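Hi W.,

Here's what went into the run:
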Amino acid sequence: MPTRRNLLRAASLAAVPALAGCDGNDAYARLANETWRLPAAPPEAMQLRRELVRCATLAPSSHNTQCWRFRLGERGIDILPDLARRCPAVDPDDHHLHVSLGCAAENLVQAALHHGWHAQATAAAGGGVAITLEATTARSTPLYGAVAQRQSTRGEYDGRPLSTPELGLLEQAGSGQGVRVLMITGRAAMEQLLALVVAGNTAQMRDAAFVAELKDWIRFSPGEAARSGDGLYTACTGNPTVPRWLGSPLFDLFFTADGENDKYSRQIRSSAGLAVFVSDGDDPAHWIETGRCVERFALQATALDIRTAYLNQPVEVAALRPQLAALLGIGTRRPDLVVRFGRGPRLPVSLRRPLAAVIDTL
Ligand SMILES: Cc1cc2nc3c(=O)[nH]c(=O)nc-3n(C[C@H](O)[C@H](O)[C@H](O)COP(=O)(O)O)c2cc1C
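Here's what came out:
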């Protein structure tokens, strides 16, 4: 049996790349560069739809599952749910899955406009989003410029407030059809929300199914991240990179509710504010629209050099939603998402699967 001390020693050895698990550093670096870029020249007509899909896949998705498939058709592109990538423990009703589809749709809309196409998003027949494309005047928005820069930055921020014009731009970007974003910048209200994050995290850490599902999506080394092209690469959360044989027992030993709660306290207290997204309805169409709004919010923040990160524990633990709704004064409506924002250093990027893995027809 490995002792705690031996595991710690192994972990510190693993911090030396030559000795241990930083397999795949080169592969990770190459994929990171290839993934997080915008084309210098407009794509050939035949390549346009593939480029739009590529931009869509740069969107965030819950646990970086990339729970989408893209069907290329005559008049446009359908973004369909990939139900093989659902996360039943953290997301039993597929709320986050549909939000992720909405995030992808928003990236696609912004990229299409840049390339001279108006993208109209409606509900797809079998679920998901149907996007029709019509030629229009090309227009490059700051949001498009941010598509390959945005990341969920899970470090601590610098604690400084944002200016009123910046808060206004974020609020505007995060609002949509039947969706609004509540901006919380008062320290007392942020502490109340922190208490719900802590309660949610504590409940999730006691749930064996939640922890097993989360661990399944963790990629402990750059090589593991590069091979799968999906999941939660530990460096993106500021954690050490080690081989899975070592990361797995370390996770079991050191991933504790108290440790995570301390981290969330520091993260929220160092943030400029919290944004809670609330929609008028509780169904896949509204969840997709919420996804479009949260992605516009994140892209607008990125364009202003402001970082964002999700903290969804109080909306994922269903028993806590009424308390959060009471705190926000939104009656019986379901709070959809919680995001913190502020300025701070970037962290390593997450990866994506190749287009061939997500496109149904070419
Ligand atoms: C609907 C949704 C819910 C998410 N919830 C959380 C969360 O609660 N905590 C977190 O750290 N990240 C959360 N994320 C962020 C994803 O883990 C992240 O988007 C993914 O790992 C890809 O990384 P990137 O956003 O840096 O590209 C969420 C993303 C989406 C779209």
